[in-house]
Amino acid sequence: MKIKDMNMRWATRSVRPVALAGLTLAALGVSACGSATAREGQASSYLTILNLEATATGEEEWEHVLASDVQTNGGVIEDDGRVRMTAAMRDVTSSTGPSTNNLITVNRYRVIYRRSDGRNTPGVDVPYPFDGAVTFTVGPGDEQTVPFNLVRVQAKLESPLMNLRGLGGRVVISTLADVTFYGRDQVGREVSVTGTIGVNFADWADPD
User: Fold this and answer.
1) What is the share, in percent, of the chain residues with pLDDT greater than 70?
2) pLDDT in tens, 11-40
3) CA 168 to chain centre
4) Which one-letter DSSP state was computed for residue 122?
5) pTM surpassing 0.90?
6) 54 shares a domain with 35
7) Are residues 135 and 68 in the same domain?
8) By three-state DSSP, how is residue 15 classified?
9) How far apart are CA 125 and CA 104, in angstroms?
């Protein structure tokens, strides 16, 4: 019995260092992967939306909630958005200040419509999401105001917006439009920012 007990104790002592070594290697592996993941996609500067507004095409006023007319004088007109954007340094403690590498060039955007009641099926409850192209460059301390297409003509020719025609504004589809702008800094690191604006679709009364 004594020999058996000694063998069991020796086996236990032999296994523990191996197990601890395995756990240590596993922890190092997770830490290394986590660090690599954390570094990916982190540019030295980032985008900030200062203002997001829209206007029905043909109107002069820009609003923070858009009344989108699905039919205007028997025709269909797209609606425009306008974004005012700036950039800032991620490391506010840097003593060197921004350089041309910190400039961010935005080259595209994506619009996704959603409803507060959770009914968000594209082509049934809300218009289809879409991608658009817009190109401008902004740097830390700089501001750019750029127009873009917020509601496409195609959306007004498809369900559910087409179904609102002739209802005289008695039925309104109220949505939130999430607009995400995508770009890169001058060394190729990806940057994005999202803003949201209200869009109410109906067959609104036509202007005189």
Assistant:
1) 74
2) 444 444 433 334 333 333 333 333 333 233
3) 34
4) B
5) no
6) no
7) yes
8) helix
9) 35
pLDDT, tens digit (0-9, with 9 covering 90-100), for 122-164: 999 999 999 999 999 999 889 999 999 999 999 999 999 999 9
Are the beta carbons of 204 and 182 closer than 8 angstroms?
A: no
- Which secondary structure element, helix H or strand E, spans residue 45, and what is its range? strand 45-56
Give the distance, in angstroms, between the CA of residue 112 and the centroid of all CA atoms in the same chain.
9
- Are 176 and 119 found together in one domain? yes
Q: Is residue 208 part of a domain?
A: no
Residue 207 counted as domain residue: no
In tens, the pLDDT along 89-112 reads 876 666 566 677 789 999 999 999
Same domain, 140 and 115: yes
Domain limits for position 15: 1-40
Q: Are residues 131 and 191 in the same domain?
A: yes
Q: Three-state SS string across 149-207, please?
A: EEECHHHHCCCCCHHHCCCCCCCCEEEEEEEEEEEEECCCCEEEEEEEEEEEEECCCCC
Residue 64 lies in a domain: yes
Contacts of 47 (CB under 8 A, 6+ apart): 85, 86, 87, 104, 106, 138, 181, 183, 191, 192, 193
